[in-house]
C-alpha cells in the first residue's frame, strides 16, 4: 500500500498472500539454473523459487485484478481487464498490448506469438517482439464459446481451440483457415494439454472425463473419468514414467498410469474444495515434482517417491483460507505477527522473511481424530477464533496462547514453542449443569503478565480465572453469589504487576478488581454502552471504545477519565492500538478510515482512509510499523512509521478535513504513449547485476573497499619484505635469440626501437620520473586528481611504496611533485572518498619523507592544508559514529 497522503505512515509490504484461483505458471531460467513459479494474488503476481519456495519478487499492482498469467523465456505475461502486460524478469513493465474490448482470461505464448482470448470469445494473435496485433478471430458464443486453447507440438502455426459446447477446432493462424472440426463428446472442454506423444492431445471435460485424442487420425487413444466433477488441471510427467495427473474442483488429484490405462493412486483433499479446488498444476521438466496451486491461498510441490507410484507433499507455502479476524505482534522485537483466521486457524507471519511463516493448525475438539482427516473434511473442527491473548514469559514451558471461539463457552490453549494447539479445553462446569447458562458464550479473555493465569469473561456476566498450565479453576470475580456483571462482558484486562483486573460490560460499566483477593475495588460508569477496551500496560492507560463511536481514555491508577475523543468516526470502531511509547492511539472504523490521536495534546494528527475497512490493527512493539487486516482480504498489510526515519511536523487535523487515501503500493502509472518507451535489447533470462555507484551521496563518507592487505601494512612493508625474502637467488631468464635484443631485468622483455623519436620523447626517456609521476605532474583539475588516485589504488603495496619514494628528489622526483601528491590526497579528503586508503598513503608519505618535509616550507604549507581537511573530515565522521552508537544503545535498552 502507498502512504503518500499520510502524515505518519508510509507503505511497506503485504503479508500472507500466496495464490488465488488463477493457475500458476512454471518457467526455467538458465541464468539462475532453477525453476520459477508465478502465482496471482489479486492485482499483483508473485514469483517463487522452486527450491525453498521463497519469494523472488512481487510485481506492481495492476489497475484491476489479474485474470490470466503465462510466461516465456523472455517475459512474464499478465492480463488485467482488457489489457495485456509484458514484464521483463517479472519486475519491469516493458509493454502493454491493447485491443480487447472484454476481459482477457486465456493467454497462450508459443514461439514469438501470443494467443489471447477474452470473455466475448474474441481471439487475437500478437507478435511479442514487435508488440503488434497480427490477427483477430471472432466466434459466436452461442455456438462456439472458447474455454481452452492449446498449441500442438510440431504443428507449425496451428492451434486447437476448445469450446463450452464440446466442439474443437484446429486453426492455422498464419493462413487464417479452419483446418478441421472435432465433434467432441457432448461436454464442455475445460483443459487442453499436449501429451508427450506427438499428435496426441489430452482433453479435460466438465463431465470429469479425460480423453487422450490423436489429432492426426481423429481417434481416441485412451479414456478416463474422475468422479469429482469437472477437470480443472492436467499435467504429464517428463522424467520417464508414463503418468498423467488431473485435478478436480473438489481439491482431489488423480494419478493415471498411461501404460496400464488405469488409476494408479489419488491424493484426496490436496487443496480445499471450498475455494475452487485445484486451479493449476504443472510438472517440473525432467523431475518427479508436481506444482499445484489453488484458490485456498496455497502453493504446493508434490514428490512422486511413494512405493505405489503416488506422491506426497514435499513443500508448501500457505496463507489464510479466509480473512483474518484478529492480528497482534508477538514478542518485543516485532518480527512476528500472530493471526487468527475465519477458517479457525492460527498462523504466524514473519515480517523479516516469508520462509519463517508457519501455521499452528486449525482448532479442533479432538486433535487425535482431526489428524486422521484432512482439514476440509475434519468432523471435529471448531468454529472460528473470535479473540486470543498471549504472553511470552512462559512460552517455552507450557501453553502461552489462549483463544475463544465464536458461539462457544470453551477456551482453547496453544503453544508457541511447538506451534500447535494444546491439550487443554477450559470450560466451567456451571455451563454444563445449570440450564440458565446453557447458552452462555466466552466473549473476552486475557493472560496475566506472569504467564500463569488466564482470565475469561462470558456473556452471562461471569469472570473466571484459570491456571493455564493445568487448566484448574483458580477463582471467580463476583459480588457475593452474583456474577461480576449483570450484563455480557465485552473486555477484560490485567495490569503489569498482577495487582488489578479490569472488566467492562455492554452497559458501559468498568469495574476494577483486586487480582489476588478477587474483591471489587471500584467502578467507573461510562456515558454510553461499551464496545471493547484495550489496556496499555506500560502507561496504565485504558482506551474504551463506545457504541457511540467515541473513545474514552481512563488512567487506571486514578480511575479517572484522562481524554475523550469525539466526532472521530461515523461508524463502528473495529480496533484500537497504542504506539510503543504510549504517545499515539490509532483507531480503525468500519467507515474504512483510521485516525491517529496524539494523547498529550488530545488532537487527531492524522486521518487516513483504506480501500476497505480495517478489521484489526496493531502497533509493533519496536514502534517501526503498523499492521492492519481488512474486510474480505486474506492479507496483512504493514505500514512504516515515518517518524523513525525522518522529521515530521504533526498538526491537528481540522474536523471538516477529508481523509488521506492509502491505496495499494506500486500501482502502474499508465499513459497513452507509454508503449513508445518500451524497447528491449537484453536477454530476459539473464538477471541484471546491480552496480553500486562510486559515491551514493556527496555528504556521505565512502571507503575504497579494497582488501586490507593492500593498505593496512604499508608502514610495515620493510619488515614484511625481510620476512618474505627468498632463500635462493633468482634465476636468469632463458637467453633470447641473438637478433632480438632484450631489456635487462628478471622479466623477459624485448627492446623495440622506434624509427621516429622527437626531442620531447628523448627527454622523457632520460627522465627518472615514473609513469605515475609524469601523469601527476600534469594533473590540474579535481577530475584529473580523481582519475589519478583511482589508478593509484590499482597498484599493489610494493608498487605504491616505490611510487611514493620516487616523488622525492633522491628518488628521481622533485619538490613540486611532492606538493602535487599532497594536493591529490587533499582533493580526496574534500570529496570524502577512500577514507582508509588516504590515511594509509598519507602515513607512508610522512614516514618516508619526514626529513624532506621539515626542510621544505612549501611542503609544510600544503601539509597544514591536508591536516585541516583531515580534522574536518574526522569531526563529521565522529559525529555520525556517536549518533549511531546512541541510537543503537537506545534500541537495545528499549528491548530489554
Structure characterization notes:
- The chain has 896 residues and is mainly beta.
- Among the domains are: 18-138, Methylamine Dehydrogenase, Chain H (7 Propeller), CATH 2.130.10; 702-718 and 763-896, no CATH class.
- The protein contains 11 helices and 58 strands.
- Strands 38-39-40-41-42 form a 5-stranded antiparallel sheet, with no helix packed on it. Strands 51-52-53-54-58 form a 5-stranded mixed sheet, with no helix packed on it. The protein has a 4-stranded antiparallel sheet with strand order 1-57-56-55, with no helix packed on it.
- A hairpin with a 4-residue loop joins strand 48 (541-546) and strand 49.
- Helix 6 (782-793) crosses helix 8 (815-830), helix 8 (815-830) runs antiparallel to helix 9 and helix 8 packs parallel to helix 11.
- It starts with 8 loop residues before the first strand and ends with a helix.
- The model is unreliable at 669-690 and 754-766 (pLDDT under 50).
Give descriptors for this structure.
896 residues, mainly beta, Methylamine Dehydrogenase, Chain H, five-stranded antiparallel β-sheet, five-stranded mixed β-sheet, 11 helices, 58 strands
Give me a quick take on this structure.
This protein has 896 residues and is mainly beta. It is built from 11 helices and 58 strands.
Strand line-up of the largest beta sheet? 38-39-40-41-42
- State which percent range the strand residues make up: 35-45%
Q: Which word captures the global form?
A: flat
Helix content: 10-25%
Mean pLDDT across residues = 86
The number of helical runs is: 11
| Number of E strands | 58
Largest sheet: 5 strands, antiparallel
Rg from Cα: 37 Å
Helix/strand structural class: mainly beta
Report how far apart the termini are.
Answer: 32 Å
- In the predicted model, the low-confidence regions spanning at least 5 consecutive residues are 669-690, 754-766
What is the quaternary state of this protein?
single chain
Amino acid at each position: 500500500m502507498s502512504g503518500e497522503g499520510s502524515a505518519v505512515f508510509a507503505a511497506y509490504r503485504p503479508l500472507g498472500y500466496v495464490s488465488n484461483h488463477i493457475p500458476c505458471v512454471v518457467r526455467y531460467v538458465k541464468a539462475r539454473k532453477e525453476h520459477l513459479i508465478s502465482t496471482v494474488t489479486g492485482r499483483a503476481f508473485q514469483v517463487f523459487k522452486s527450491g525453498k519456495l521463497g519469494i523472488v519478487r512481487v510485481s506492481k499492482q495492476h489497475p484491476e485484478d489479474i485474470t490470466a498469467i503465462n510466461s516465456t523465456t523472455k517475459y512474464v505475461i499478465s492480463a488485467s481487464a482488457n489489457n495485456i502486460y509484458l514484464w521483463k524478469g517479472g519486475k519491469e513493465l516493458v509493454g502493454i498490448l491493447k485491443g480487447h474490448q472484454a476481459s482477457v482470461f486465456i493467454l497462450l505464448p508459443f514461439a514469438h506469438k501470443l494467443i489471447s482470448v477474452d470473455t466475448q470469445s474474441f481471439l487475437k494473435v500478437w507478435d511479442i517482439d514487435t508488440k503488434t496485433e497480427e490477427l483477430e478471430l471472432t466466434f459466436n458464443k452461442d455456438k462456439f464459446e472458447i474455454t481452452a486453447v492449446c498449441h500442438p507440438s510440431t504443428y507449425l502455426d496451428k492451434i486447437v481451440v476448445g469450446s463450452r459446447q464440446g466442439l474443437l477446432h484446429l486453426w492455422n493462424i498464419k493462413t487464417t483457415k479452419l483446418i478441421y472440426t472435432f465433434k467432441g463428446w457432448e461436454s464442455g472442454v475445460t483443459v487442453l494439454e499436449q501429451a508427450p506423444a506427438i499428435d496426441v492431445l489430452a482433453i479435460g471435460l466438465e463431465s470429469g472425463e479425460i480423453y487422450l485424442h490423436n489429432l492426426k487420425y481423429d481417434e481416441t487413444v485412451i479414456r478416463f473419468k474422475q468422479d469429482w466433477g469437472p477437470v480443472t488441471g492436467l499435467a504429464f510427467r517428463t522424467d520417464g514414467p508414463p503418468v498423467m495427473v488431473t485435478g478436480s474442483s473438489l481439491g482431489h488429484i488423480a494419478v493415471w498410469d498411461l501404460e496400464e490405462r488405469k488409476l494408479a493412486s489419488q491424493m484426496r483433499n490436496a487443496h480445499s474444495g471450498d475455494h475452487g479446488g485445484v486451479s493449476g498444476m504443472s510438472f517440473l521438466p525432467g523431475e518427479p515434482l508436481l506444482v499445484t496451486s489453488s484458490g485456498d491461498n496455497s502453493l504446493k510441490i508434490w514428490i512422486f517417491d511413494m512405493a505405489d507410484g503416488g506422491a506426497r507433499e514435499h513443500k508448501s507455502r500457505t496463507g489464510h483460507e479466509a480473512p483474518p479476524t484478529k492480528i497482534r505482534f508477538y514478542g518485543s522485537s516485532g518480527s512476528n505477527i500472530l493471526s487468527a483466521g475465519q477458517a479457525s486457524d492460527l498462523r504466524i507471519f514473519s515480517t523479516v522473511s516469508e520462509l519463517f511463516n508457519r501455521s499452528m493448525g486449525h482448532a479442533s475438539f479432538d486433535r487425535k481424530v482431526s489428524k486422521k482427516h484432512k482439514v476440509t473434511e475434519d468432523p471435529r473442527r471448531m468454529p472460528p477464533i473470535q479473540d486470543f491473548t498471549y504472553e511470552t514469559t512462559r512460552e517455552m514451558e507450557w501453553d502461552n496462547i489462549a483463544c475463544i471461539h465464536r458461539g462457544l463457552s470453551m477456551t482453547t490453549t496453544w503453544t508457541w514453542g511447538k506451534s500447535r494447539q494444546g491439550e487443554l479445553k477450559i470450560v466451567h462446569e456451571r455451563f454444563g449443569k445449570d440450564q440458565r447458562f446453557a447458552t452462555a458464550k466466552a466473549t473476552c479473555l486475557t493472560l496475566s503478565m506472569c504467564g500463569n493465569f488466564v482470565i475469561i469473561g462470558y456473556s452471562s456476566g461471569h469472570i473466571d480465572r484459570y491456571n493455564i498450565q493445568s487448566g484448574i479453576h483458580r477463582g471467580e470475580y463476583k459480588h457475593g453469589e452474583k456474577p461480576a456483571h449483570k450484563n455480557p462482558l465485552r473486555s477484560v484486562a490485567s495490569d503489569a504487576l498482577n495487582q488489578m483486573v479490569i472488566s467492562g460490560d455492554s452497559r458501559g460499566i468498568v469495574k476494577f478488581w483486586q487480582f489476588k483477593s478477587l474483591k471489587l475495588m471500584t467502578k467507573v460508569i461510562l456515558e454510553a454502552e461499551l464496545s471493547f477496551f484495550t489496556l496499555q500496560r506500560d502507561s496504565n492507560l485504558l482506551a474504551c471504545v463506545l457504541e457511540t463511536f467515541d473513545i474514552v481514555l481512563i488512567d487506571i491508577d486514578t480511575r479517572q477519565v484522562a481524554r475523550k475523543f469525539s466526532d472521530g468516526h461515523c461508524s463502528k470502531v473495529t480496533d484500537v492500538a497504542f504506539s510503543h511509547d504510549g504517545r499515539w492511539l490509532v483507531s480503525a472504523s468500519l467507515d474504512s478510515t483510521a485516525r491517529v490521536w496524539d494523547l498529550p495534546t488530545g488532537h487527531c494528527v492524522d486521518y487516513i482512509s483504506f480501500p476497505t475497512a480495517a478489521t484489526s490493527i496493531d502497533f509493533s512493539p519496536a514502534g517501526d510499523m503498523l499492521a492492519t487486516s481488512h474486510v474480505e482480504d486474506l492479507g496483512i498489510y504493514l505500514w512504516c512509521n515515518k517518524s523513525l526515519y525522518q522529521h515530521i511536523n504533526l498538526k491537528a487535523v481540522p474536523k471538516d478535513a477529508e481523509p488521506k487515501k492509502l491505496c495499494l503500493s506500486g500501482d502502474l502509472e499508465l499513459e497513452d504513449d507509454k508503449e513508445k518507451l518500451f524497447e528491449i535489447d537484453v536477454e530476459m533470462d539473464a538477471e541484471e547485476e546491480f552496480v553500486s555507484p562510486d559515491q551514493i551521496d556527496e555528504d556521505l563518507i565512502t571507503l575504497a573497499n579494497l582488501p586490507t592487505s593492500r593498505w593496512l601494512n604499508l608502514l610495515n612493508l620493510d619488515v614484511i619484505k625481510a620476512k618474505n625474502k627468498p632463500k635462493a637467488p633468482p634465476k636468469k631468464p632463458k637467453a633470447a635469440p641473438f637478433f632480438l635484443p632484450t631489456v635487462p631485468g628478471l622479466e623477459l622483455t624485448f627492446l623495440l626501437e622506434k624509427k621516429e623519436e622527437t626531442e620531447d620523447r628523448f627527454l622523457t626517456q632520460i627522465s627518472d620520473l615514473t609513469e605515475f609521476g609524469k601523469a601527476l605532474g600534469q594533473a590540474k583539475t579535481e577530475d584529473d586528481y580523481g582519475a589519478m588516485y583511482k589508478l593509484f589504488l590499482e597498484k599493489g603495496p610494493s608498487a605504491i611504496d616505490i611510487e611514493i619514494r620516487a616523488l622525492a628528489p633522491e628518488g628521481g622526483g622533485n619538490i613540486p611533485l611532492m606538493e602535487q601528491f599532497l594536493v591529490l590526497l587533499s582533493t580526496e579528503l574534500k570529496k570524502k572518498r577512500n577514507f582508509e586508503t588516504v590515511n594509509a598513503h598519507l602515513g607512508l608519505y610522512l614516514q618516508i619523507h619526514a626529513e624532506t618535509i621539515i626542510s621544505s616550507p612549501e611542503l609544510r604549507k600544503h601539509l597544514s592544508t591536508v591536516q585541516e581537511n583531515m580534522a574536518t573530515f574526522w569531526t563529521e565522521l565522529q559525529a555520525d559514529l556517536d549518533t549511531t552508537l546512541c541510537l543503537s544503545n537506545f534500541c537495545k535498552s528499549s528491548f530489554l
